Amino acid sequence: MLVSGATGYIGGRLVPRLLEAGHRVRCLARDPRKLVGRPWASHPRVEIVRGDAAREDDLFRAMTGCGAAYYLIHSMMAAGREYADVDRVLARAFSRAAAAAGVERIVYLGGLGETGAGLSEHLSSRREVEVALASGPVPVTVFRAAMIIGSGSASFEILRYLVERLPIMVTPRWVRTESQPIAVRNVLEYLVRCLDVPETTGLTLDIGGPEVRSYRELMHLMAECLGLPRRVIVPVPVLTPRLSSLWIHLVTPLSHRIARPLAEGLRNRVVCRDDRAARLMPQRLLGIREAIEAALSRIAERRVETSWSDAGPIAGDPDWAGGTVFVDQRAVDIEAPPAAVFRGVCRVGGGHGYYGADWLWRLRGAMDRMVGGPGLRRGRRDPENVAYGEALDFWRVTDLVPDRRLTLRAEMKLPGEALLDFAVEPLGAGSARLTQIARFKPRGLGGLLYWYAVLPLHGVVFAGMLDGIRRFAERSHRESAPEIRIAA
User: Fold this and answer.
1) 397 phi and psi, to 5 degrees?
2) What distance separates the 2 farthest-apart alpha carbons in the chain?
3) Domains, the chain, ordered by start
4) pLDDT of residue 265
5) Please, which pLDDT band fits residue 257 given cuts at 50, 70 and 90?
6) What is the pTM of this model?
7) In this structure, are residues 296 and 226 in contact, taking their beta carbons and an 8 Å threshold?
């Protein structure tokens, strides 16, 4: 089986389920390093191939020998406003390559929504992808889902953050719109089970949970599951999708680029038209409360498999040759082995903070959100471990060598390009040197002014971070060292 989009939210969870079902899985990834840290990446029945979904020869090579191919690609995060055009082109290329490679079936997960005029741009784009995939001779199994409830999903995070942060919500009229959410585990079950049910070949199947609720009711249910007082929800007719997306951007971890198409889609009623999927592939469908509680439990237990931010694009390294590049380099010797030092480095950001002057980091994150950046609300998938390609607050992991190096690329709104690099060098006798290098390549006069404006703060934030990592590494090393007893 080929899984395209294996670095994404659904694809990253689908692969281990396919393995559990006994399938061999080939994953197509533009940068295979993004999959190296996944627990299933070294499985003997997993093959990771490098390729670009926009190149038909890469697709053909990846699909050759595969009986089915999952299309789980969505370019909304990477392509911005042009995502619909890009998705249509990618889907057509996928269809042609599947036919040339002799693939027997394409499986696609799209969006639920009533057919006909009035669909949002986002849902209309999902329909266009269906048509493009089916433009060739290879039959397509289409699953259409509404809100997917699961730890780390974009729609779930919007709902959770809105309810957590706003005891009183002024909302658009779409708060009355009906939806039929489905738990992520049920979605994955359908995606895997369809391979063993020939009747699903070529069908378009609506999938949803056992309940139909308005978004207002979903917000009340989320508040109950979070143990919060009932939220006051005031729908008004004047909030446009644009204003709604800006509000979602400010309150939740999602950027306005993702929030706007999702907000526009909320005006459409998304309810299953029939129960063919449930009849062909019966399973126990989780109710909304049960699905929310399962997702919150995963978050509390730090067992979030994948997150909406995992599939974020990783830009190429900036061209540091030529022009002005500012460097702030600091180093400290630490009485702890490299592994302990690296553990301290990997705890940067998220709930742990930045070891010092956290109020400055929070202020910087709030300023970034105000101008359309990700801010600090993306957090991190796991509080202790990082993987290549993951989002970490307003950073992205662009280089990772265990116990040796971690490089973070800034995704905050900046008048230039910035990297933060940590290098661990063993010194012998259980000690190590940690070198921290911040690089900034300014863009125009604004970039120069920015660097000199924040330069006085480096002694606080970067020096404090370095000292905090030192203290953590030495403390954790002392606590883990075996006690030596001297016999009398």
Assistant:
1) -75, 115
2) 88
3) 2-310 (3.40.50.720), 314-480 (3.30.530.20)
4) 63
5) low
6) 0.74
7) yes
